[in-house]
Amino acid sequence: MDKDINELRNEINSIDREFVELFIKRMGVSLSVAEYKKKTGMPVLDRARERELLNRVAKMSGDEMKTYTRLLYSTVLNLSRSYQHSFLDNTSVLTEKILSASANTADVFPTEAVVACQGVEGAYSSLACEKLFRYPDIMFFDRFDGVFSAVQNGLCRYGILPIENSTAGSVNKVYDLMSKNKFYIVRSIRLKVDHSLLAKKGTSLTDVKEIFSHEQAINQCSEFLNSLSGVKVTVCANTAMAAKMVAESNRRDVAAISSANCAGLYGLCQLSSDIQDTGNNYTRFICICKDLEVYPGADKTSLMMTLPHEPGALYNILARFFAYDINLLKLESRPLKDRDFEFMFYFDIESPVHSDGFSRVITELSESIDDFTYLGSYSEVL
Known about the structure:
This protein is α/β, with parallel strands linked by helices. The chain has 12 helices and 16 strands.
């Protein structure tokens, strides 16, 4: 007679008890291995040993189960290494640096500072800046790399950069520059972006033959632009620059996709308002600083790392986040220009900086990954 569901579940429960007992026993032996490694100066990770073990257990399990067994033991090895790290490294140098910055940073985010923004007056970066700082002294730069340089060279204490949009996605130029510059993120903000089509007073929509704007704004307004016929769309460095160009142009057949705020700044009129594809259009900006500052309430952290080009490399990182109950907010990859088929991975995670799980995962990642960069811990303004 076939077993009923309760009998089968009881059988599984019995196996699970044995499994857990053996797992605890294995982790205990793993800790003894960590003690030996500590005494002899051996590293926690032994790739040759792990490869041999995975091949051995796969052969033991047979063809039908070998894939599942590899996956199971990859997780076990990952947990074993994590347990060994907790014994060998209570906290890493980086973890201590983060905790020290948290203890020494002011309790309140500054209300005034010299801040670098890309574009000209009226740029969305400057609007985001004015929401973060009550009395900002804004210095404008033509390009994003100018913002990074101003912060690195001490010309500005902070810099504001757009990093992603809810409609058009990531700002790739900023992500590419992030891997080339040293900085820390100290705040982020989500700004609702409503685009308008601006032109000189007296110009009608049917007069417009060319529209200027930033590529992100153009992508965000694709449906509106596709509804126009015979209109050339030209990319420029910034939405506010586009409005300024139209205002200073001798032509009366040009328009700019920009903010309604720029209409007043540059003496233009709105031919159409709210022309973005979706009403729920937000751009996320980051505020960067040269030195590490961790303000109270920081519960988001950005990381950057290059992983080995091999199966399971990304999974091992994600498994750590899961094990320590850390929520992954974003995962972005960008190709490395000088290295074929290799990528830089960017992670946004959610966890208080003083939690045990955060300290453990930062310690493990910073100690086990060669190309690892901590980009800062911060809170986000909505």
